TrEMBL record:
This is Mechanosensitive ion channel family protein. The chain crosses the membrane at residues 20-36, 64-85, 97-122. Residues 181-263 form the Mechanosensitive ion channel MscS C-terminal domain. It is found in: Cell membrane. The lineage of its organism: Bacteria, Bacillati, Bacillota, Bacilli, Bacillales. It comes from Aquibacillus koreensis. One of its GO terms (molecular function) is mechanosensitive monoatomic ion channel activity. Residues 110-174 form the Mechanosensitive ion channel MscS domain. It is a multi-pass membrane protein. May play a role in resistance to osmotic downshock.
Length: 277
């Protein structure tokens, strides 16, 4: 009975002293965490809207700072929790140092990820919202973290690319983009007439705000097995080339139909032999 009574007293004392303090620490953590994240987001939103930094740069820094803030806040929470339950913090910090040393020697890939991520941000090779090709993937950058970079492919797949695998970056979002349309016409059609119709379509799209330059008809691109390929080229604003190309192909088909110009398509001819009567 004395043992049970002593155990009960210890548990009660723990709940009345340390338990309340741990509960308060958790409540403060739950309050501070979202407030800090909101402050980081609002500060960078103002910086981006005030044009002190670009909007893409603001989004990139926001993702990174939120990541770092979460790590730091969690470490502070663990240290304070150890203090409340009266566990020595010194061994924890020493253990963190030993862990860091172990990471340096035994997990060089992790260190390489962090170092590469730092230089990606420093040199601004890619930023959130940009269309890039890197690490064997292409798509829109959603987040640049300390260890990985998230790239969303156009089919919706979210790719987690370790920063050390980003050996080279093809950034398709810096400057104007190329809108290229190849269209085939029949060998029987008049090439000059077809180019004239295409130029009329191009003149319509020159008023389109998506185009920064052109588009214009370049001329004959190649000779196919059943068609003569004509090429149109223009420069569009960032990420507007895909929609512009689709709209141009639709308008070209309508213009060719009105002008009586045929777009070749595969034909099949069946030859039958009748038996002699």
């Amino acid at each position: 009975m004395d043992f049970l009574q002593n155990t009960y007293d210890i548990i009660l004392d723990f709940l009345l002293t340390k338990g309340i303090r741990i509960a308060l620490l958790i409540i403060v953590f739950l309050i501070v965490a979202p407030i800090g994240k909101k402050m980081i987001s609002s500060t960078l939103d103002k910086a981006g809207s005030g044009e002190r930094i670009t909007e893409a740069r603001a989004k990139t820094l926001e993702k990174l700072l939120l990541n770092v803030y979460s790590y730091v806040l969690f470490f502070i929470f663990v240290v304070m929790l150890f203090g409340i339950i009266e566990l020595p913090i010194g061994p924890l910090l020493a253990g963190a140092g030993v862990l860091g040393l172990a990471i340096g020697f035994g997990a060089q890939g992790l260190v390489s990820d962090v170092v590469t991520g730092f230089f990606l941000l420093l040199e601004r090779q890619l930023e959130v919202g940009e269309y890039v090709t890197t690490g064997g993937y292409n798509g829109i950058v959603e987040e640049i973290g300390l260890r990985t970079t998230k790239i969303r492919s156009f089919d919706g797949t979210l790719n987690f690319v370790p920063n050390r695998d980003i050996a080279g970056v093809s950034n398709h979002s810096r400057g104007t983009m190329r809108a290229l349309v190849d269209i085939g016409i029949s060998y029987d059609d008049n090439i000059d007439r077809a180019m004239e119709v295409l130029q009329q379509v191009c003149d319509e799209f020159k008023q389109d705000e998506r185009f920064a330059d052109g588009p214009d008809v370049l001329g004959v691109q190649s000779f196919g097995s059943s068609d003569v390929v004509l090429r149109i080229l223009g420069q569009t604003e960032n990420m507007q080339q895909f929609g512009a190309e689709r709209d141009m192909r639709k308008r070209i088909k309508e213009a060719f139909d009105q002008a009586g110009i045929e777009i070749p398509y595969p034909h099949q001819v069946y030859v039958t032999k009748q038996a002699n009567e």
